């Protein structure tokens, strides 16, 4: 969204209140004033768009994930536990772009454990997952599947959903990812790979996420 510089004459008490609120919200004076005016005048800001997406995600996945307190309008943090010995925690972070291009944002997944065998299972799961997702991308001629896999950490960019259902798309992806990981950890050598691939393909065909 295009921005321009304007001069405003405001009371010192108003500026002080704005600065205090901006500090609490972790944003700038200009951005907060922009949000306040946009909401009052029914204009859509990036913060409003991101809040709408995250509200939709929260509504759809609250039964599967624990929603963490958010410190930024562009970031959503979630947590779940694997049905595995010691119930290791897995953290998910969805970070949205203020001005999306081909991608709406990025997903980061991290397993919270010091156990190298658990980290190895996590990495092996995502090696399978990456190949499966890349194949779905290539089937429709998309070659911009962007990911990174390190020890116990996975991240990938999320396509900008063309049909305006970004919240639903992210929710469906997260639920399927969590289900797949749970099944893989329960039986790494004998999990329903082809069933999960078909389920993901249906999600991808609809939402392109």
Structure description:
With 209 residues, the chain is of the alpha+beta class. It folds into 2 domains: 9-43; 46-207, Yope Regulator, Chain: A, CATH 3.30.1460. The protein contains 6 helices and 6 strands. It has a 6-stranded antiparallel beta sheet, with helices on one face. A hairpin with a 6-residue loop joins strand 3 and strand 4 (103-112). The protein is elongated. The model has no long low-confidence stretch (mean pLDDT 87).
Essential attributes:
six-stranded antiparallel sheet; Yope Regulator, Chain: A; 18% strand; alpha+beta; 209 residues
Write the layout of secondary structure elements.
Layout: H1 12-25, H2 29-40, H3 46-61, E1 66-67, E2 75-81, E3 89-96, E4 103-112, H4 116-139, E5 147-150, E6 153-159, H5 166-186, H6 193-207
Antiparallel strand pairs: 1-2, 2-3, 3-4, 4-6, 5-6
Helix pairs in contact: 1-2, 3-5, 5-6
The ordered H/E elements are: HHHEEEEHEEHH
CATH class category of the largest domain:
Alpha Beta
- End-to-end separation: 23 Å
How large is the count of helical segments? 6
Structure summarized in a few sentences:
This protein has 209 residues and is α+β, with helices and mostly antiparallel strands.
């Amino acid at each position: 969204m295009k921005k321009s510089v304007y001069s405003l004459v405001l009371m010192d008490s108003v500026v002080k209140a704005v600065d205090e609120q901006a500090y609490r919200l972790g944003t700038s004076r200009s951005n907060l004033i922009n949000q306040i005016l946009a909401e009052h005048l029914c204009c859509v800001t990036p913060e409003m768009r991101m809040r709408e997406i995250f509200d939709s995600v929260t509504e759809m996945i609250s039964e599967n994930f624990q929603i963490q307190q958010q410190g930024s309008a562009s970031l959503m943090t979630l947590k779940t536990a694997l049905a595995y010995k010691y119930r290791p925690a897995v953290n998910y972070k969805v970070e949205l772009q203020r001005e999306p291009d081909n991608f709406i944002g990025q997903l980061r997944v991290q397993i919270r454990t010091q156990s190298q065998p658990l980290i190895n299972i996590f990495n092996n799961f995502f090696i399978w997952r990456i190949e499966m997702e890349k194949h779905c991308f290539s089937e429709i001629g998309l070659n911009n599947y962007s990911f990174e896999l390190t020890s116990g950490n996975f991240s990938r960019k999320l396509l900008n959903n063309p049909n305006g259902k970004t919240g639903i798309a992210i929710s469906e992806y997260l639920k399927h990812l969590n289900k797949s990981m749970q099944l893989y950890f329960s039986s790494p050598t004998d999990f329903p790979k082809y069933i999960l691939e078909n389920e993901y393909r249906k999600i991808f065909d609809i939402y392109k996420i």
